[in-house]
Design brief:
Elements (H helix, E strand, L loop, with lengths): L7 H8 L4 H162 L5 H50 L1 E11 L3 H4 L17 E3 L8 E4 L2 E7 L6 E5 L3 H7 L2 E7 L2
Parallel strand pairs: 1-5, 2-4
Antiparallel strand pairs: 1-6, 2-5, 3-4, 3-6
Length: 328
């Protein structure tokens, strides 16, 4: 207060004292007031310094807050970008899963079709086998009937020859008895009857010989044919017939998928593996001087599919035909 009023009030107070005691009291009061003012001034200065420090701290904190806000905005943008990218990835994965499911469904349908085809081929092979067995049985029955008919015809011929021989014998005996009772002028007739009997007997004997000779000839020719067929079977195996030949390889174009094993579970090998239905796996076939093994399924009986190492070799093989034998 003294400093604010230029110090005149304090001085006037001291000079206006009436006595010494009042002067001392006023002086003490002035001193206390001056000390209070100094103290308050220091507090005011300290408060100002504190305010300045707090303002500096507030500015620093504000700058830090602004930086955090900027980082927050950047993080939010990054999170949004990551969310958008994740959404795109999820959509792509969903599309891939849908495509994979469709592909799996298509493969399942192909497998079902292949199973149906295999079942049809097996059924066709069984029907062809049954037809061959029926045809073979019918041929055997016809051959047996023909042999039986030939035997009956031969027996009938033999009985007819025997009957004719007996009739000629009886006639000759009767004629000889009649001639004995007649005169000598009829002797020439008797000799004629005897000559007729001899001629008839010789003719019947020759017919019997001819019929037996023809039977022996037919039996010998049949035995020769059976012996020739047995020699052919023993030399090259059982003859199956003239089959159609094609070729295939282990690629996706030929087999649907590449690198598969054969239907019998073996690794296909060129020069050994063939595919054919109607015979069990492991059957060995002789084709054009080469021995092949049936290890795969896919072609009907009468059609042999030969395995090759490459698709180009299979294409160059083309469509052929050859005599096929089943080895013993």
């Amino acid at each position: 207060y003294m400093y604010e009023n230029g110090g005149t009030s304090a001085l006037e107070t001291l000079l206006s004292s009436k006595d010494l005691s009042e002067f001392l009291n006023n002086a003490e009061s002035v001193a206390k007031i001056s000390q209070y003012d100094r103290t308050m001034l220091e507090k005011c200065e300290n408060l100002q310094n504190t305010i300045k420090d707090q303002e500096t701290t507030a500015e620093e904190e504000k700058a830090a807050i602004d930086q955090l806000l900027e980082e927050r905005a950047a993080k939010q943008q990054e999170v949004q970008n990551l969310a958008a990218s994740t959404s795109d990835n999820i959509s792509s994965y969903v599309s891939q899963i849908s495509a994979s499911q469709e592909e799996a469904a298509a493969l399942t349908a192909e497998i079902n079709n292949a199973d149906n085809s295999i079942a049809q081929l097996v059924q066709q092979a069984e029907e062809e086998k049954a037809a061959r067995e029926a045809a073979q049985a019918q041929a055997e029955a016809e051959a047996a009937a023909a042999q039986e008919q030939d035997a009956e015809e031969n027996s009938d011929d033999y009985e007819e020859d025997t009957d004719s021989y007996e009739e000629d014998s009886s006639d000759s005996q009767d004629s000889s008895e009649t001639e004995e009772s007649e005169d000598t002028s009829e002797d020439s007739g008797d000799s004629t009857d005897e000559d007729t009997y001899e001629e008839n007997e010789e003719d019947s004997y020759e017919e019997d010989s001819d019929s037996s000779g023809s039977e022996d000839t037919s039996d010998s020719s049949a035995s020769e044919d059976s012996q020739a067929s047995s020699d052919s079977s023993s030399g090259q195996g059982k003859y199956l017939g003239n089959f159609t030949l094609t070729a295939y390889c282990n690629c996706a174009q030929c087999c649907g998928t590449a690198g598969n094993l054969t239907a019998s579970g073996t690794v296909p090998t060129a020069g050994r593996t063939v595919a054919m239905a109607g015979v069990p796996f492991g059957t060995q076939l002789l084709i054009n001087g080469n021995v092949y093994t049936v290890e795969d399924l896919g072609t009907p009986y009468g059609h042999v599919d030969i395995y090759c190492d490459s698709h180009s070799e299979a294409l160059s093989f083309g469509l052929q035909s050859a005599e096929v034998y089943q080895l013993n």
